[in-house]
Amino acid sequence: MSTTRETIVYAFTQYVKSLRLLPSKSPMTWDVAKSQLRWDSYKTAKNRKSILLWHFNYVLTAHVVYTTAIVYFILEQLYGWGPKRELLNVIFHTLLAVLNWYGCSMHVMTALYGHDAVNGWNEILRIEAGLTKDGHQHRKTSNSSHHVNPELITLLTIVALFTGYPFFVIPAEMVLNLDCIYILVHAIGEKFDLLPGQVFVLHLIRFCILTINGTEICLTFMFVILIFISGLLLLREIFTNFLNRVKCPAGNANDLVESLTFTHIQVQLAIKSFACYQELGVLALMTVGLLVFIFSNFATVRFFGVVPFVVFVFFPSVSFLVALIVNFTLPLTHKQYEDSIELLRRSAGALSPMGRGKYLRRKIRAVRPHRLSVGVNGKLDQNLSMQAKLKSAPIVFGGGVGCGAPIIFSGDGALNSAGVGSVWSAASTSALHTFR
Fold first, then answer.
1. CB under 8 Å to 116, separation ≥6 — which residues?
2. Structure confidence at residue 405 (pLDDT)
3. In which domain, by residue range, is 126 found?
4. Do 380 and 405 lie in a common domain?
5. Sign of dihedral through CA atoms 262, 266, 268, 272?
6. Is the pTM of this model over 0.85?
7. Domain match, 60 and 201 both
8. What per-residue confidence (pLDDT) applies to 327?
9. How far is 198 from 201, CA to CA, in rounded Å?
10. Is residue 320 located within the same domain as residue 400?
């Protein structure tokens, strides 16, 4: 077993440990015994009740209750139904609304494309394991390597942060009334003149909904990110193995190139099964990451020394987490595309000029380089290339801030949209130079 695979297995094992005390189970989970992903259909699985409870939790808390509270919060701010909210409340409500939207997206994505994603990801894992067993790539591994592996440290940091978020976000929401459900409960209490005991029951129900909603979304967030990062690590290992073989071919070069081309096509077919889940998931992660990064950075600067430390530390931790994921995944995304192009180029150069080599060279020209994309069910397909990021960054950054600034930064003592636009223009220009 390669070091990369050991890292992935260990990270997913830690994820499974965080699920032991939960009664609900996602149908898409990690099989500790087989060291691969597993799909449990609620029709045939032994833990059918746990899977149905997972779907019920998402439908009730995320899709119905919290979404209704978000809609009421937006209408209240637009039409002035209630009191004018402070800037902290608006920022926190908006941030949690974005995360709830992500949870809804991931629930639908898992229900529709989870089974195919498991098959595709496991096929990539099988290909990587087969290449490692062939003896062309040997890496010394030991139990002491866990604490010096930067990839493992990154994955465990993601697991630790998402595991800990519910323990201080949910109490902060309850104590400081920073969730959208509080606004809905307060409005119901005033509308129907409820007694203090009845209002207490509503707040108890609110606490249960926030606990279920926050825990399920954090765990889903963690699992999806682990799947994407581990998939990129496996692809890196596969293409690195390919390139090492082409550099130092053993035996007949034509046979080696034909074998590598066949395996390259197998990888692309496996990615095709994983594509719908990956494309929609990456699109949601990019959208959520952009909005959350903006909100968290602003709150980190604006609310230092203003809010309790437990609440304040949430914002810089989220900014750190987003930056960690972006800086870890973007180089891997670019590298697997560049390695795919380099593999096809070197394979064509290693072939004999005539006969079978000429036939294989035409076959290689028909193979497309492997490139990841974002989209929705094959629509709005956008390649994750460096050129695409450079073209879309000014539009996405400027448009997102331009639309959100009049709402987010309105109020006494807050920034106006023009000031935010000028600051963001300089920031986006600096970011583009960094990308280049």
1. 273, 274, 276, 277
2. 44
3. 3-384
4. no
5. positive
6. no
7. yes
8. 82
9. 5
10. no
